Amino acid sequence: CTRQIAKVTDLAEGVPYFYRVAAENEYGVGEPCELTEPVVATEEPAPPKRLDIVDTTRSSVVLAWLKPDHDGGSRITSYLLEMKQKGTEVWREAGQTKQLTFTVEGLTENNEYEFRVRAKNDAGYSQPREAFSSVIIKEPQIEPTADLSGITKQLITCKAGSSFTIDIPISGRPIPKVAWKLEEMRLKETDRVTIKTTKDRTTLTVKDSMRGDSGKYYLTLENTAGVKTFTVTVIVIGRPGPVTRPIEISSVTAESCVLSWKEPEDDGGTDITNYIVEKRESGTTAWQLVNSSVKRTQIKVTHLTKYMEYTFRVSSENRFGV
């Protein structure tokens, strides 16, 4: 080589090479000068594989793509996104990223845009990869829905005095409005009731639950695409209420009588296991146990004292107490 520049050919792509140069005259070859760093033979990368429109809003679009089949012999350092309105000729930069997805913001609603992406390495930018079609910028219309799969049989059981939570993932476009009802009563936040809603979840929490919190809870989701209602049943279980009055007394003899009553209106949310019958003699305040394991709603009380006046009471019991 007689000039101070040389082109080296037939290099293997992606392989690092060291080079050195030595001067030669009529007396021989001088000391060579070496590069301190290797040089990698590279070229521009191939275009990214496919460009997809993932989502749109009223002012933005989400794009995603795949890595190029070939990086040109050096690492892909970034991607360049470009866009133009449909019907125009000039592409302009929409943004740069190192990821395989990008959100273009600040777009005009109901306008139609085209997008493309280029990969970049040390040698420069690839040829562009355009999206399969243009896209109109607008909010999608998707009917609201809720995912109740996390609530077995859409039933929640809670012990009285404790808290329960109904946590439900929701979706829909635009983001749906959320309303909660217990039977016919619209629920609002109180000291005991908390309602928290985000774009993809709604959570209803009731603290210090009472038997009156039992019932069907209705979740209504509404947006411009439609209205949907979902139901979750809550049973708050606890001690039963009193037996239904009056307690009837019949078949009275000198030493016995028969007591009859009706089941309590509120069984505490679970089966009545037994009844407890007690008696109190006139003139005293002490109650005496007659029978604590009565299974029916009737009992014959015996061993009474002739001419003594008695008061009777009956309590119902379930597995949570009396």
SSE blueprint:
Layout: E1 16-17, E2 20-21, E3 24-25, E4 28-29, E5 33-34, E6 39-40, E7 49-56, E8 61-66, E9 78-85, E10 92-97, E11 101-104, E12 112-121, E13 124-125, E14 129-130, E15 135-136, E16 142-146, E17 155-159, E18 164-173, E19 177-182, E20 185-186, E21 193-198, E22 201-206, E23 215-223, E24 226-237, E25 244-250, E26 257-262, E27 274-281, E28 288-294, E29 298-301, E30 310-317
Parallel strand pairs: 17-24
Antiparallel strand pairs: 1-6, 2-5, 3-4, 7-8, 8-11, 9-10, 9-12, 12-13, 12-14, 12-15, 16-18, 18-22, 19-20, 19-23, 21-22, 23-24, 25-26, 26-29, 27-28, 27-30
Describe the structure.
By secondary structure, the chain is mostly beta strands. It has 3 domains: 48-137, Sandwich (Immunoglobulin-like), CATH 2.60.40.10; 143-237, Sandwich (Immunoglobulin-like), CATH 2.60.40; 248-318, Immunoglobulins (Immunoglobulin-like), CATH 2.60.40.10. Helix content is 0%, strand content 50%. It contains no helices and 30 strands. The chain has strands at residues 16-17, 20-21, 24-25, 28-29, 33-34, 39-40, 49-56, 61-66, 78-85, 92-97, 101-104, 112-121, 124-125, 129-130, 135-136, 142-146, 155-159, 164-173, 177-182, 185-186, 193-198, 201-206, 215-223, 226-237, 244-250, 257-262, 274-281, 288-294, 298-301, 310-317. The strands form 9 sheets. Strands 9, 10, 12, 13, 14 and 15 form a 6-stranded antiparallel sheet that branches. A 5-stranded mixed sheet has the order 17-24-23-19-20, with no helix packed on it. The protein has a 4-stranded antiparallel sheet with strand order 16-18-22-21, with no helix packed on it. Strand 7 and strand 8 form a beta hairpin. The radius of gyration is 41 Å and the shape is elongated. The N and C termini lie far apart (108 Å). Keywords: Immunoglobulin domain, Repeat. One of its GO terms (biological process) is sarcomere organization. This is Titin. GO terms for molecular function: structural constituent of muscle. It comes from Micrurus carvalhoi.
